[in-house]
Specification:
Elements lengths: L4 H14 L8 H8 L3 H13 L3 E4 L5 E4 L1 H4 L3 H9 L21 H16 L4 H4 L4 H11 L5
Antiparallel strand pairs: 1-2
Helix pairs in contact: 1-3, 1-5, 2-3, 5-6
Length: about 150
């Protein structure tokens, strides 16, 4: 299973904010740290803010912070939200599969997908930034553009 770019970015953004400490990076700074387009980062930030996982303040002294809910958020729930509840394969698309009425693959893939999500359910954002990841992530985010 391959995650959507927005799911990947949401997870990395939450991890980045989890190690930010008192700093409140802007969406533009986070997008630069992660080498993603600002517009894509802004869309993901808006969704995370809507979910109550990120607080965003505008203007001077503004920026992004991880909410308490964001720190304890389940990775499985987050991935479900961003990926959607759809099937792994599209059996009824523009050209429906001729095996659709008697196929066992669709059910097996659905069970595998749910097992994937379930394995991520107990993992929290805080868990993802525990040693050794957190300090490494902090080092990456402190580099800034052109700091090499």
């Amino acid at each position: 299973m391959r995650l959507l770019r927005s799911t990947d970015l949401a997870l990395r953004l939450l991890m980045r904010l989890a190690v930010a400490g008192d700093a409140s990076p802007t969406t533009r700074e986070v997008a630069g740290d992660m080498d993603v387009p600002y517009t894509h980062a802004a869309k993901v930030v808006a969704e995370l803010q809507h979910l109550g996982l990120v607080d965003a303040r505008r203007g001077r002294g503004g920026g992004l912070t991880l909410s308490g809910k964001g720190r304890t958020a389940s990775v499985g729930a987050l991935v479900r939200t961003f990926e959607g509840e759809g099937d792994v394969v599209d059996c009824e698309g523009p050209t429906p599969c001729p095996l659709n009425s008697a196929c066992r693959l669709r059910g097996a893939l659905r069970r595998a997908q749910e097992a994937f999500f379930a394995s991520l359910d107990p993992v929290t954002v805080a868990d993802m930034v525990a040693e050794p990841t957190g300090p490494l992530l902090l080092g990456i985010s402190m580099r800034g553009p052109g700091a090499d």
